[in-house]
Amino acid sequence: MPRPFKCRFIRCRPEANYFKPRGIPLDNLEEINLTLDELEAIRLADLEGLYQEDAAVKMGISRQTFGNIIDSAHKKIADALLNAKALKIEGGVYKMAGMRKFMCYACNHTWEIPYGTARPQECPQCKSTNIHRHPEARGYRGGCGPGYGRGRCRRF
Q1: CA 112 from chain center: how many Å?
Q2: How open is the CA angle 138-114-15, to the nearest 5 degrees?
Q3: What is the distance in angstroms between the CA of the first residue and the CA of the last residue of the chain?
Q4: Half-sphere exposure of 135 (CA within 13 A, CB side)
Q5: How many Å separate Cα 105 from the centre of its chain?
Q6: What is the pLDDT of residue 114?
């Protein structure tokens, strides 16, 4: 039995999810599917210029997995461009990365930071180091796992 996919955290959804060569009817085109996690890898590596290790941390996966995802995405995009194929962006194994909520136990200040950023070392208000995840936000990275419930990883 193959190992299940690890949930990939993404931070963007494209406004347009379908691209095709101009002047060729859609009926005559072969279609290639680029998943949302592959698009996120392209965004992090090629648009933001992050190293694979840093991009992998942002997606919550290993560097090797990130490398495999980016290679797959590059091949699909090259195939679509060079062989005049339609590119459809949808699906994948992902969870939209949200915000992590923290609380200072010294002054009761609460604040949020996005996933993929380093854990804060001190409270932004009183500079205390007695900070923890907010009680309502504790758990395993937002509950990534099988299923489609609140906070679950989605596989499409």
Answers
A1: 18
A2: 125
A3: 20
A4: 3
A5: 31
A6: 73
φ, ψ of residue 2 to 5 degrees: the values are: -70, 155
**E-strand stretches of the chain:** 8-10, 18-19, 31-34, 86-89, 93-96, 99-104, 110-114, 131-133, 154-155
Judging by beta carbons within 10 Å of its beta carbon (0-12, 13-18, 19+), is residue 34 exposed, middle or buried? buried
Closest listed residue to residue 43, CA positions, set 80, 6, 61, 70: 70
Tracing tokens 């990883």 back to the chain, one arrives at 153
- CB 127: neighbour CB atoms within 10 A? 11
Domains by residue range for the chain, with CATH:
8-95 (1.10.10), 98-142 (2.20.28.10)
When pLDDT is cut at 50, 70 and 90, the band that residue 141 belongs to is very low
**Percent of the chain scoring above 70 in pLDDT:** 84
Structure tokens at 112: 């949020």
